[in-house]
Amino acid sequence: MAFNHLRAGVHDALAPLSVTPVTHSVPMAKNHRSDRPPTDPASRPAPGAVLDRLASGPSRASRITHTEHLPPREGRHAVWPDRIRAEVVAAVRAAGIEHPWAHQARAAEHALDGESVVVATGTASGKSLAYLAPVLSALLDGAEAPNGRGATALYLAPTKALAADQCRSVKELSHPLGHSVRTAVYDGDTPFEEREWIRQYANYVLTNPDMLHRGILPSHPRWSSFLKSLKYVVVDECHTYRGVFGSHVAQVLRRLRRLCARYGASPVFLLASATAAEPAVAARRLTGLPVVEVADDASPRGELVFALWEPPLTELHGEKGAPVRRTATAEAADLLTDLTVQGVRSVAFVRSRRGAELISVISQERLAEVDRSLARRVAAYRGGYLPEERRALERALHSGELLGLAATNALELGIDISGLDAVVIAGYPGTRASLWQQAGRAGRSGQGALAVLVARDDPLDTFLVHHPEALFDQPVESTVLDPDNPYVLAPHLCAAAEELPLTDEDLDLFGPACEDLLPQLEAAKLLRRRTKAWHWTRRERAADLTDIRGEGGRPIQVVESGTGRLLGTVDAGAAHSTVHEGAVHLHQGRTYLVRSLDLEDSVALVEEAAPPYSTVARDTTSISVLETDVEVPWGDGRLCYGSVEVTNQVVSFLRRRLMTGEVLGETKLDLPPRTLRTRAVWWTVTEDQLDRARINPEILGGSLHAAEHASIGLLPLFATCDRWDIGGVSIPLHPDTLLPTVFVYDGHPGGAGFAERAFHTARTWLTATRQAIASCECDAGCPSCIQSPKCGNGNDPLHKRGAVRLLTVLLEGAPEEKETQEQPPGGSGEPSEHPPGP
């Protein structure tokens, strides 16, 4: 990309800096609408009966390890505040809603009082209406203003699909209000000929943080009339703004507030999320403003039956002869097929884009054997599709034309798909919050619902389906958000300086880290101080310095070589491992082979093919310690936290037979290495500890490697991440520590707070890791305990019993977690690699 040299300049400016993120632990969740009148429960299939039919096949019942029943709940009504316009109340009643729920009325009252508020009630509790009522009232008031444009409102969603869905819903609700409410979506899919009209005339604009960062804020003079009238900013699905992405969004919102102040506006923020323990704390951290919380859910809820499902063992054997369970993908495809045959409207959530395509294809093939017309009623939905493909699928699902959908978490976020009866979750989605968000997609019209979590063959999923209390008796996880991360803050200071020169008065808005960062940005010749302000010095756009989703640059375009047709896109960060030369690529049920990958032009050329195999990339990783911030004695060993540099390179790929997973061969690749400066937790052991654990040099590497894999697999129970957010390296003799060392690091530049959370919960985390390995029934290690699906070394070497003994000795010296406080830092073997996934 043209801006790589400038991004490198920011990185170099920060290189000498000791990065110490601040952890703000706040459980958060999601927003769903229940604004429509509930469907007659008698017309819906009872969730228990649906589950009984799913479990009726041969050996099916034994796959259910636990069933949780959440009882229905009665709703509590209230009345709208008298300041809500009568026309808005009438429009709501015309939509079938006679009275609001108590939490909706309370949230609207705070908004009308000019207080920023977060509505943190459960799934399908009507949060959309809670913020729409005051927003629509303000727009009607503004329409009667004698001069000027009148009040405006901005809606932010994490995905384009959610913004488009919300736009459709708002237009339906506000139709009786006439032209006073002019609603429009403004994102990367908006035609250029419509954009000027939106800037000049729309008073309710729906967009996403990416477009706000790259499109609206840098062009604020063209948005001046909109910004100076901005009354409300709606931040939907605010639980998704966590880690590095959330930290970027926090700074984007601060830039928005700064420009609004420049034009004389001070908007009220209305945020929506679900099942959060401390929503006001998270919302305050995100917006930088005091926020009132409304968390007493007064909406009714239908019965939810939640089943935990473990696929059976097969006769196949995997790496190192390990027993292999049937895949969650195959099992979910079977369940989606059965649900479709029963006429049960369902979504199967799957972790990867490829998995969504596979489930769709398998289900379509099996349905065609029953009834050809049914095969057309199942499809895949994922990121990377072209806009017109996404919109068509959303319409088909909304209308009921589609009975079943295999989807990535692109469909997790709030799109109104009322009427679903069941959700199948193919693999634990990484956090309890995400699990409940996905489960909440069913039953959104007030009827009962079924949710089934199908376990993958990995340590965390296996642990969860046999320890249901870890899912059902625990609150959602702590959310980590650190806007002061200098790798996040630095490019936003540059962007803010280009929008308006930065003054001393602005620095309080952006946080205390500015004082150290501004001189470094000056030294890097990105900013220049003139009189009392800092100015952007370059001709290029400062907003292009950072990708707020951390996807590593311009997306790779996937192009059919014979026709030149654009099939879709792949995130730049995933390109090396997913669209390398020779990779198998799935799109809308069709299989393609990648013929070439041009990283400079960001293009992967593919051609349609039908290979009898899938492909899996292999990589190598090395790690060096930049700075140890905290060091705590664990007996003779040490637990440390600090800054590291990780170098990763995709070096080859495996071809695996489609049905069995058998490895057919390995092909070398020549791709450039990539480096990452981030945060890590690591622990070391001494020779004496190895002797007590009976670890000899022959099994040392495998013991460390197995402990690393299992600890990464269990960390999502203790931090708001999944194993694809983090990476690890284990080394029998690390050159920086001069001891056997296991590292677990954040897969994001500057860190995302996950490793810091691991450091502070290390005793509990590693105790659970040891228990998960020791309790597994396999002999030498399997995907349910120590094998990893993304290991760069092909899960070799691994030593299960050695890992248990090693962790036992390490934990003998572990202090209580309240003792894990910061202390001053103290004065050969081949690494095993476990990089974060795409």
UniProtKB/TrEMBL annotation:
<dbReference type="Pfam" id="PF00271">
    <property type="entry name" value="Helicase_C"/>
</dbReference>
<dbReference type="GO" id="GO:0043138">
    <property type="term" value="F:3'-5' DNA helicase activity"/>
</dbReference>
<dbReference type="Pfam" id="PF00270">
    <property type="entry name" value="DEAD"/>
</dbReference>
<dbReference type="InterPro" id="IPR018973">
    <property type="entry name" value="MZB"/>
</dbReference>
<feature type="domain" description="Helicase C-terminal">
    <location>
        <begin position="335"/>
        <end position="487"/>
    </location>
</feature>
<feature type="compositionally biased region" description="Basic and acidic residues">
    <location>
        <begin position="65"/>
        <end position="77"/>
    </location>
</feature>
<dbReference type="Pfam" id="PF22982">
    <property type="entry name" value="WHD_HRQ1"/>
</dbReference>
<feature type="domain" description="Helicase ATP-binding">
    <location>
        <begin position="108"/>
        <end position="294"/>
    </location>
</feature>
<dbReference type="GO" id="GO:0036297">
    <property type="term" value="P:interstrand cross-link repair"/>
</dbReference>
<keyword id="KW-0067">ATP-binding</keyword>
<dbReference type="InterPro" id="IPR027417">
    <property type="entry name" value="P-loop_NTPase"/>
</dbReference>
<dbReference type="InterPro" id="IPR001650">
    <property type="entry name" value="Helicase_C-like"/>
</dbReference>
<dbReference type="GO" id="GO:0005524">
    <property type="term" value="F:ATP binding"/>
</dbReference>
<keyword id="KW-0378">Hydrolase</keyword>
<dbReference type="GO" id="GO:0006289">
    <property type="term" value="P:nucleotide-excision repair"/>
</dbReference>
<dbReference type="Pfam" id="PF09369">
    <property type="entry name" value="MZB"/>
</dbReference>
<dbReference type="InterPro" id="IPR014001">
    <property type="entry name" value="Helicase_ATP-bd"/>
</dbReference>
<feature type="region of interest" description="Disordered">
    <location>
        <begin position="812"/>
        <end position="838"/>
    </location>
</feature>
<feature type="region of interest" description="Disordered">
    <location>
        <begin position="27"/>
        <end position="77"/>
    </location>
</feature>
<dbReference type="InterPro" id="IPR022307">
    <property type="entry name" value="Helicase_put_actinobac"/>
</dbReference>
<dbReference type="InterPro" id="IPR011545">
    <property type="entry name" value="DEAD/DEAH_box_helicase_dom"/>
</dbReference>
<keyword id="KW-0347">Helicase</keyword>
<protein>
    <submittedName>
        <fullName>DEAD/DEAH box helicase</fullName>
    </submittedName>
</protein>
<dbReference type="GO" id="GO:0003676">
    <property type="term" value="F:nucleic acid binding"/>
</dbReference>
<keyword id="KW-0547">Nucleotide-binding</keyword>
<dbReference type="InterPro" id="IPR055227">
    <property type="entry name" value="HRQ1_WHD"/>
</dbReference>
